[in-house]
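I have a small job for you when you get a moment. Can you supply me with one protein entry, sequence and fold together? It will help me judge whether the discrete encoding reads sensibly. Write everything out right here, beneath this request:
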Amino acid sequence: MSKIPICKEDISAKWLTDRLTSLGYCRIDKLQLEVMTGHNPHLSQLFRVQIEYSARTSNHPNVVVLKIPPADHVIRLREAALGPYESEAGCYQLLEKFQGFSLPLMYSLTQNSDEATACFVFEDIGPLPKGRKYAQLGLQETHRVLEFIAAYQAMFWLDESLSQHGWIRDSSWSHLFNQNLMESVLGWQAIKQDEKIEKTDGLISAGEFLGSGLIDLMNVMNDRPNTLTHNDLHQGNILLRQSDSAFEPVVIDWQLTAYAGGTNDLAKFLMTAVPFRIFSDNEKSLVGYYVDCLQGRGISDYSFDECWRDYRRAQVMVLANYAISGVHRLPDGILQISKGDSTRAVIKAFGIIDPQELVDVLP
């Protein structure tokens, strides 16, 4: 029997009242729950909750977001064994000073130590405009995310104590998330067979490296300076909070954290979350901005040239991840690659890469 809510019916006015008492005395009379976009019952359930109070303080929110684990017992324990709930809880505690700014405010965290699961009560950043799947980042918002990436990475740069936390994975895990690297070959075959995908020279250079070549790539990537990494900075994990007349990006879903090279986050963010026009016109200056932000926070021994090399290598590993996780075989035996937004963005990003540069930086 779970000690935290695992279904909509478990979320009562009394339960949420107890969760919000840290903000002051309140009494909730009624809740209205809405299943949110992004609801994934195999990993977590998301609800936007409208609250009606009969007693409250000015600190109490009118709307919150609840994140609870799956209802199915087998799925819940299987997922918990991989550590996503402990990882997210641990990261929000490590990065508490960023809450309300680059992270959502966390009003309540309740953990079930027996199951290694957790439920969260977060601030509601607000729904996306009608018709949009993702937050729309401009160059200014892109810079703000890079500043935040550099900020949390600088805090834990070469901090070996992170490896003592059982919920933080190691560098080797972060490359392919324990996936079979040889399955990247199948993904590359699916990409090559898809007539709708443009096979640019940069994409071909990266794709032909997938498979056993990734072993050598992972070995050299383990030589990067390690730090706290999010590892899943795709477009769906970045929201926009309106502040006065501006929009500030907010990063969510810290379930795949690792003590690994910082360019993991840099590559995935630039390739999947930044609009292609901005990415293609500003790629080098954006990487430079990230390095400048690191140096501004005291990380002086990681040069632009080192970062650029590590970034290019990380891009190949991002392609490998999507080639593995996005491929499936149709009933007639034909391999098909995912048409998801992030997969398409990663493939497109290789269109602006000089293939000879890839050859030069790959081991």
Notes: The CA atoms of residues 309 and 360 lie 9 Å apart.
